[in-house]
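Input set for joint prediction.
Command: fold jointly, output tokens.
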Amino acid sequence: MEHKKEDFSEWYNEIIDISQLTDKRYPVKGMNVWMPYGYSLMKNTDEMIRTKFYEDEYEEVMFPSLISRPMFEIEFEHIKGFEKELFWITRGGRESLEEDLAMRPTSEAAIYPMLKLWIRDHADLPKRIFQIVQVYRYETKHTRPFIRSRDIHFIECHTAHDSYKDAEEQMNLYRREWDYFTKKLCLPYMEVKRPEWDKFPGAVYTIAFDTLMPSGRTLQIGTIHEYGSNFSKNYDVKFAKEDGTSEYVNQTTFGMSERLIAALIGIHGDDKGLILPPFVAPTQVVIVPITSADSNFESFVSEIENLVRNSGFRVLVDKNDNYTPGYKFNQWEMKGVPLRIEIGKREAESNSITISLRTRKGRIKLNKDDISQIKNLLDEVESDLLNKARKILSDGIEGIKTSGQESSIKTFILCDNEKCARSIEAKTELDMMGHILNYGSKGKCEVCGNEGRTALFSRPY
Amino acid sequence: MEHKKEDFSEWYNEIIDISQLTDKRYPVKGMNVWMPYGYSLMKNTDEMIRTKFYEDEYEEVMFPSLISRPMFEIEFEHIKGFEKELFWITRGGRESLEEDLAMRPTSEAAIYPMLKLWIRDHADLPKRIFQIVQVYRYETKHTRPFIRSRDIHFIECHTAHDSYKDAEEQMNLYRREWDYFTKKLCLPYMEVKRPEWDKFPGAVYTIAFDTLMPSGRTLQIGTIHEYGSNFSKNYDVKFAKEDGTSEYVNQTTFGMSERLIAALIGIHGDDKGLILPPFVAPTQVVIVPITSADSNFESFVSEIENLVRNSGFRVLVDKNDNYTPGYKFNQWEMKGVPLRIEIGKREAESNSITISLRTRKGRIKLNKDDISQIKNLLDEVESDLLNKARKILSDGIEGIKTSGQESSIKTFILCDNEKCARSIEAKTELDMMGHILNYGSKGKCEVCGNEGRTALFSRPY
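tokens >
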């Protein structure tokens, strides 16, 4: 396998292939097949997000994938921002369609004409819905699995509120949810307020969650948008107030995608392969029996399997006789399974198991009666992954050389003025991503001397 | 509400609207919004199917939604069968695409070019995959929610085998799975072998599962197809045998869709609204407190809620103060919740609850300690729904007048000859659906006197 640090791009492509997350050979450019292992990882991630959204009382819906041209053209900034990326359906069977249909690149233009019908008065607010669907973008840039594709697995929340203040509180709820999701995925992030010229088409402002990939490039893995009444004015989404007048709703959105998978592949993996966060790993515990079978031994293996499963973990016993234990160890390490249990004759006779964690060297002996320790060991993997990744990110922000390489992101104290940002862009040949809200500090703009705060410059994916 | 028996079509549309399963007002023809209640019902159904397929060791995948024209044109019968129904994407952004892309109407043409890459030798067989996705058909007929739409929720299995015999065994596995699914959905069905001229484009033969809607029309709610090597020869899907030669795989598919929802709405519902099968009902148990609150009373209600939830049921307490208990009873009956618990002061004081089932009149008193009885009561709803629906179907097949109406399906003993079928079609003005394999009997063809068996004639949706 390629060395991750020497050629991240090659390593990334290779690990996705050999761990069978996705198959890139599908004959349509930029569209890949989700293989069982990759689909399971995505589905566990979806389910984590869905469960949280249910707890927080969002309702799950599913909108059609197609949007007519008139629906799109209601919001001018929005169509302008997306028109280069739309796939257009112009024919049905052998006929030309009367009205061209776009495949959704995101669902504002699909959802808001319906919100207009659903929201009548104060009692209908706040309205909070989400959907987990595929969206489609005609990407002309180089495509790459999970990072930039044309058929994208997408999670989107849309909310409507009776005031800007309530919409802002929703933005804070998103932040707390995002913090929970990324802890479970062991992903560190910068909360970056995109500059005016780079916000979502139609938004009042955009907060992006950027993470740092080992290539030194940043990857946007989530966004939350405050729309105010920009969309509701165009889509005519109003609510009747008690005094008889009516007012446009304030709206927000939260978007995440399969890029979450890209981030956890890139950030956690090593030269042995994937390392998957326990919360979403398709297999959390793999049991490798390392001796030939007799019935006592087999029943001990089954007993351990059941104990682990009944503790609530996704467990798999690798009984394949065609491979050696050593080969299997390598395979499951490559697949990123966080915890491995070896059971040999000695273990069975002493009612014990031998454990290896994907995140540290050495083996751990455990008595059968202490099997509840597995939870703590998986928690250790989770916190080790998160802490290691956080250190790399904060080193990068601080400009500290990590593992001999110079950090390829740069930060400057900067004001809000576009000219100041552009002058730094010209000097660094990096893009201004925005002000970082969860790292750095306030200070004087390094270009003009006005009030400013730490801003991120990087080469984004 | 419309009376179901007087105008089924109107009743069907109205119940879907008022129970908020889907919203038909989406501005693209034939595409509807899955509302939270409808989406939850579909998701529970998906999950039932997914769980079964996992048990039976299918692997879940997700293919891209788009298929290029050359991929489609590999199998001539297949493209011929679908070409009138394809949505074609011809533009990306402002450019014309080099190669037109079709939105999948089903996924043979997407999956089989990849199977060619995945299957090399005997060890790769049997290969059994499934996906739960949206498919798209440019329907020119009248569209109707869940029955005929242009953006269809679809569940499809694809398998490959080393022999026709093994593929036939797969067909039997499908039958057992189908029997399980329909028991849980309380849906009776006819297993109908479609005639040669009406089989799936590219199949050796097609078995359809047809059910009878209260309109008297039949609804195809599932199909299993034996492809033999028809597709594998065209898509070049071969496996190497031990003797060094290679052979084309034998393939099968199993398809189901949102029509399962159409069937359970139509078949189980009554003039009060939906009646949902307990296994998939979004809310299985609704608790309606029928007194004003004091803290003792509220804690009793919570205790009951927790007991029901901890028994594994989806339960909801309707605490809304704006409506009377009577109004709530009607609402939840309309929504089809199978079991309702009323708790008043008297119940709380006597540690008991009052239960109503959606499928029978009268109330059931239950002591708190007997709450495990709820499982049996939900089982009663399940078997009542299934038995009632089965009787209506078998009466229909037998030509027995049900509830005063003449059965609108007809059966004849018929041979395999197309001419015989066509002559009956002309006489009855109904379509020949095929021979029924799970009802009826063998005998002499009523047209020509040759060997035959019971065949179904109906007006299908």
